[in-house]
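Suppose a classmate hands you a notebook page containing two proteins, each written out with its sequence and a corresponding row of structure tokens. How would you begin to make sense of it? This section walks through that situation. The first entry is reproduced here exactly as it would appear on such a page.
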Amino acid sequence: LQALGRDLRQVLNWALSKSESVLRAVISAIEGAGMVIADVIAWAKAAGDLALQIVGEVLMRAGHTVEYILLWVEKDGLTGIKAIVRGMLKAGAKLADLVAWTIKRGLQVIKDVASELLSLGVTLAQLIAETMLYTESGLKNLIQAFKEIGKSVKDIVEAGLIQPAVDAGRRVLAALRDLGHTAVEIMNAALDIGGSLLALAFTLILEL
């Protein structure tokens, strides 16, 4: 590519204008030649979501880690995070790795990544389970993100109570309390769920 004597952006724009498969091939060649990945990511941010998705996919398939790819995305600001996450997941990125990186960031990033993951079929319960490995502030940010993307208290309570460990449910209810929800609100949500989870919710609420 360097021998073509063209600007990298021109080559990438040309590839994008041809087809997705051509763009994948060109990005793979750039990555394989050891050229600067930051320049490719900066181009993709300007080119749009499809370009970002393909970049995420190609870099992941090339063996780079979630942490490495998102570090370069983060350097220029996190524009297009949803699209690049979509590409990485398509290429086999592990949910645990995505959560490990995301949960250490601010609320907006957590919200963007959680929204994308949920749209791709990941459940609230899965995200909560992965977040249990980290700090209480990370869990609270995740739950706040759930609320801001339209999930109800019932959705969140149920996702917490169905965790294998009772302590996980306890932590979710405590996070809801810390975010301003009353015991009555939480109980009403549990009532809507019904079944055995209602008794568990009542027991955990008494412990708060």
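The notebook's second entry, a different protein, reads as follows.
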Amino acid sequence: CPLRAQRPIHDILLKHTVGKDDPDLMPLPMLFASVSPGGLIGQETLIDHIHPYPQGHLWIALEVLGWMRDEGMVRADYKPSTEDVELVVNDAMSVLPEEYFQKGLLNLTKVLLWARKYQEALQVMQSQWEILQNVAQARYLVGTIMEHLGDTQSALEHLRKALELEEDHLMVLGMLARVYTRIGVADSAKATCVKVLGYKPGDPGILSD
């Protein structure tokens, strides 16, 4: 994945840290390759091509613990039980607010949109729609996806709902003007653009539209 640090970057880091007083670099690419199908690191272990799922963070923590044992920072025979690990993970997960999970899903959708993987982006949104349906940014993203997929009616519905949730959201207004233009509703498109210009006078993109 071009979004992740490539092998030459890892080699440079290893070259410049070897023999230093800093802690050793963890071989995380090797770790994740070892638990990935065919050794290829992908969506099975990374939520957005870059960041691990919670389980991946647990693997990293256990890898760090192994390094600490090797360095004598903890007892050589210390190895937490599965029950102890689950207790720590559950405690950590239980204090995370709902917004934390929403943000992860929204960021993943943005990456997929950037990569023009519209169906995959829509699947992400639909998979957790119960916690996203009243979030203006989620509605905006789904509206944008539907516009790219050619479903202008669904795009309008989601964009209008986004404005109900967050009045005068500039990105929503911009996309709404684009959809109105696409379906030939020139008066609504112009009115929406004029509204945006009230917040961003002289904006070249809006003036061009």
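A careful reader of the second entry would note: The mean pLDDT is 86.
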